[in-house]
């Protein structure tokens, strides 16, 4: 309790350095939280995209439909196979585009019978596609793997760029903590010397400064989360009305995990920054 009280007193006494540190950490944590939420949403979009990825197999008129379906369903990579007759495919197309209904009544159905193949692992799409193309009675094979690969490339680029930005932001927050602790130590230099003379232990001297770093981290995390989480929920509520097809992350467990991880990281940065500042001071005073 003594160490905690001293830490709070030091924050009030050095309020200029404390406010500067809290501001820097809050901005860093806010951007980090925004990146985490963006990454979580991109991951969910990617998971949904991969889960809905199907391979369309267009059959030739002479194809043995039942034999092909039995053969493909027996493959270990295949999760499900849906057979769509050409007349059903045309009916679905006319239902989606009513303007084609009149034209469809005058021409012969140009659509082939189709198999929609869903895979257990979407990364095997190219391998399965090659095997499908070798089957007798298969006219053409189509898949959306190229779109998924493009999305994955963009996602990986954003993840790498985000990781670099996170390192920069955390370094800035750590630097701010170190400077704040050094300022606090400088202001209490004489008091520390007196405590050493009367036999105070190193841990007794260190504790208030370590607590100060932790408190600065907690305050910064509280402000950051108080801005980000309500702002994110408000933004998702508005955007979901316009983009109903986007699976925004709303699970309280996911949001709670991000908030908890951010708070723990803020405490860790505060503690490590305080320890670095103290170690530098102690080396200078030897």
Question: What features would you describe in this structure?
Answer:
With 286 residues, the chain is α+β, with helices and mostly antiparallel strands. 73% of the residues lie in helices and 9% in strands. It has helices at 2-13, 15-52, 65-73, 86-96, 101-104, 125-133, 145-187, 189-197, 202-242, 252-284, and strands at residues 54-59, 78-84, 114-119, 138-143. A 4-stranded antiparallel β-sheet has the order 2-3-1-4. It is elongated. The model has no long low-confidence stretch (mean pLDDT 78).
The global form is: elongated
Whole-number count of domains: 2
Instruction: Give the class from helix and strand content and strand pairing.
Output: alpha+beta
Helix content: over 70%
Low-confidence stretches: none
How far from one another are the termini? 29 Å
Largest sheet: 4 strands, antiparallel
Approximate strand percentage: 5-15%
Enumerate how many helices there are, as a single number. 10
- Order the strands across the largest sheet as they lie in space: 2-3-1-4
Summarize model confidence as the mean pLDDT: 78
Q: Helix and strand string, N-terminal first?
A: HHEHEHHEHEHHHH
Calculate Rg over CA atoms. Answer: 31 Å
């Amino acid at each position: 309790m003594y160490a905690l009280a001293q830490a709070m007193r030091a924050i009030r006494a050095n309020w200029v350095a404390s406010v500067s540190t809290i501001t820097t950490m809050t901005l860093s944590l806010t951007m980090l939280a925004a990146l985490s939420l963006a990454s979580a949403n991109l991951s969910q979009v990617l998971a949904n995209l991969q889960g809905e990825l199907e391979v369309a197999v267009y059959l030739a008129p002479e194809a043995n439909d039942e034999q092909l379906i039995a053969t493909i369903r027996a493959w270990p990579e295949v999760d499900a196979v849906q057979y769509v007759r050409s007349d059903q495919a045309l009916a679905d197309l006319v239902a989606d585009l009513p303007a084609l209904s009149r034209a469809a009544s005058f021409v012969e159905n140009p659509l082939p019978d189709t198999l929609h193949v869903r895979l257990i692992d979407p990364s095997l799409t190219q391998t399965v596609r090659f095997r499908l193309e070798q089957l007798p009675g298969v006219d053409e094979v189509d898949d959306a793997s190229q779109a998924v690969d493009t999305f994955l490339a963009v996602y990986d680029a954003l993840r790498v760029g985000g990781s670099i930005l996170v390192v920069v932001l955390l370094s800035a927050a750590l630097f701010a903590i170190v400077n704040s602790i050094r300022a606090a130590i400088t202001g209490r230099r004489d008091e520390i010397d007196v405590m050493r003379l009367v036999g105070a232990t190193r841990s007794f001297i260190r504790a208030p400064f370590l607590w100060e770093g932790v408190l600065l981290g907690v305050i910064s995390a509280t402000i950051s989360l108080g801005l980000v989480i309500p702002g994110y929920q408000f933004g998702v509520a508005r955007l979901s009305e316009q983009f109903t097809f986007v699976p925004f992350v709303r699970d309280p467990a996911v949001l709670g995990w991000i908030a908890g991880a951010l708070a723990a990281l803020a405490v860790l940065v505060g503690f490590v920054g305080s320890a670095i500042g103290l170690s530098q001071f102690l080396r200078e005073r030897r």
